[in-house]
Design brief:
Family: Belongs to the SEC15 family.
InterPro entries: EXOC6/Sec15, EXOC6/Sec15_C, EXOC6/Sec15_C_dom1, EXOC6_Sec15_N, EXOC6PINT-1/Sec15/Tip20_C_dom2
Oligomer: single chain
Largest sheet: 2 strands, antiparallel
Order of helices and strands: HHHHHHHHHHHHHHEHEHHHHHHHHHHHHH
Keywords: Cytoplasm, Exocytosis, Transport
Subcellular location: Cytoplasm, Cytosol
Low-confidence stretches: 1-19, 254-274, 276-288, 772-786
Strand content: under 5%
Structural class: mainly alpha
Radius of gyration: 66 Å
Helix content: over 70%
Organism: Cardamine amara subsp. amara
Amino acid sequence: MQSLKGRRKVVPTSTGAGIDSAEKLDELLISSAICNGEDLGPFVRKTFGTGKPETLLHHLKFFARSKESEIEEVCKAHYQDFIHAVDDLKSLLSDVESLKSALSDSNSKLQSVAAPLLSSLDSLVEAQTVSKNIDLAIGAVTHCVRVMELVSRANQHLQSGNFYMALKCVDSIESDFMEKTPSSTLKRMLEDRIPAIRSYVERKVMQEFGDWLVEIRVVSRNLGQLAIGEASAARQREEELRIKQKQAEEQSRLSLRDCVYALNEEEDDEFGSGLESSDGGSSGGGLLGFDLTPLYRAYHIQQTLSLEDSFKQYYFENRKLQLTTDFQVSSITPFLESHQTFFAQIAGFFIVEDRVLRTGGGLISKLEVESLWDIAVNMMCVVLEEQFSRMQTANHLLLIKDYVSLLGVSLRRYGYAVDSLLEVLSKHRDKYHELLLSDCRKQITEALSADKFEQMLMKKEYEYSMNVLSFQLQTSDIVPAFPYIAPFSTTVPDCCRIVRSFIEDSVSFMSHGGQLDFYDVVKKYLDRLLGEVLEEALLKLISTSVHGVSQAMQVAANMAVFERACDFFFRHAAQLSGVPMRMAERGRRHFPLTKSQNAAEDTLSGMLKKKIDGFMTLIENVNWTSDDTPQDGNEYMNEVLMFLETLVSTAQQILPTKVLKRVLRDVLAHISEKIVGTLCGDLVKRLSMAAIKGLDVDIQLLDSFTEKLTPMLTDKEAKEMKKAFIEIRQMINLLLSSHPENFINPVIRERSYNTLDHRKVAAVSEKFRDPSDSIFGTFGARGARQNPKNKSLDALIKRLKDVS
């Protein structure tokens, strides 16, 4: 062993002097390789390569013989040590025997003493084992009892529908007791039933959630109707408050200090109070049964089951599907009948979503609600565009517009943007007004066609209030005695009601549509109604249905009343549009029915002129060459004056003074023209001085007639009235003057004869000259010869002929 441990490299020594140097070297190399434990493969290959294996065998045998002596010496050294060791062992043999006997004795004594102790120890170990087993059994039973208690509690929660607590019990069993359960049977039962319980709970809550999805649609519709109803009530309160405020302002403007108005403002918080009470909590039943408990319980259970994300997606997709289904408009039921339910469903849908967003604990995000709202707005715009394009009745369009605006008011308070909806409504403003104008055209045509051209009789005060005061048509603040005969016919209040309804409908459409200042729009369409629809109808009525003086007079009287009514229309439009009266007065235009008013007055004047023409035919009976001057005027003038006096007495009861003055002035001018035309015409061949003086009497009678009108005329108006027959007056003054040739003087002509035409003067002057005189003739058998005047008249005629 020592030789193995002490192995080292051995350098071989040289042996055998008889070996040559080459073989000696090979031998040394082989010996050295063997001693050092190197590989002999190279030597073997070399030997067999030279074909001399005997040399290698020789070297190996020589090396073996050289090591035999060394081995023998080592064996001898080890053998001596072994002999010495054996001797030492033999010397110890006696001691071992004595020790063995001592140990045997001690063992016997120990066995005799320890036998009872070993028996007691075995009993103790057995008792400890039994006790340990009992403790384990008690622990296992206790563990199982706790598990069963949790199982029993979970069953009770399941039976009572308290799924969350049931799941908490199941989670506790799974996390705290499952792995430690000693009973394999119980453990297998738990492993089998826990997934089943979770699956059962999931099915139940999803079933409740599905029922809630069905019920919430009905609730949403009722909730939307309530919200829109609250918005409508709030709008009504605002309108009432605005009316009271305007009444107070009007009273204040009239300085009626004894009239005190208390404006009880409604609190804004009243709006939607019913809604808040109905969804004040996540599980409140509220006014409409707005209960989100099934939804939140399902969401909570899904969170407990670690299915939160999938439930969120499921909820969003189902609500989106419901929203899309709500937009399916029935083709059987007219949209006018179903639009309230349609929009109420949408309003309720987003009121519910707003509540879920604020109280749902992240069930739905704001972006998801906004995406649903964008979908709803786009689809509502499409539906409105389609339905509005089909509607041909203005009232139907207004009803839907009002309900949509109430929808916008209801949802704006929840933070939803409704500008797109309002833009759609504003886009159809022109179509609505066109339909409204068309409806009003039909109504006005019917009202005018039903007119009997008779003054309206009002027997009761309420009739006066409804037909006069409501349109501010009265000319005095004093209420007349009843029965009262109005100066206008039934057409006026009927048309006023149509126009007022148009204004209110127009304002109703324009208001609550996002545009604050819409008076200009209302005024534009009001101008169209008055200037196009009403005036065209009146012009048609005047041109086709007026067949007598009384009818024409009634129409003219109606037009005067319409002038006051138009002032009321624009004030009413400004008041409803919230525009101050001073601004409305500042922007007021001229009377929009001027054409029809002029047509009515022209028609009346034309008919009166025809009447006058009938009386003026009596002028043919005048003896223009008579030497006698009629002291009471000619017959034709007396007939004309009787007609004019009757006309004035009748017209004063109907026509306003300004209209009567215009008509009379036109008639008087026509009388003047007829007389002048007669003098210039072929009917009169020659004029005598007496005939001219008779015409002077006729004109004086006309002057007297105009002077009788002084109570209703100012001095300026009286002068204007006399100017109506200024032509015939100047013609008579010229013929009666001593120097007719003064007509040639531009200054005198401009001052005294500015209305006379020189051709007419020349024609009448020729007839006024006496044909029996070579120069002028005489002015009558009784008249003395007036050479200066004749010369002047002859000079005038000559000068006028030169001018011609």
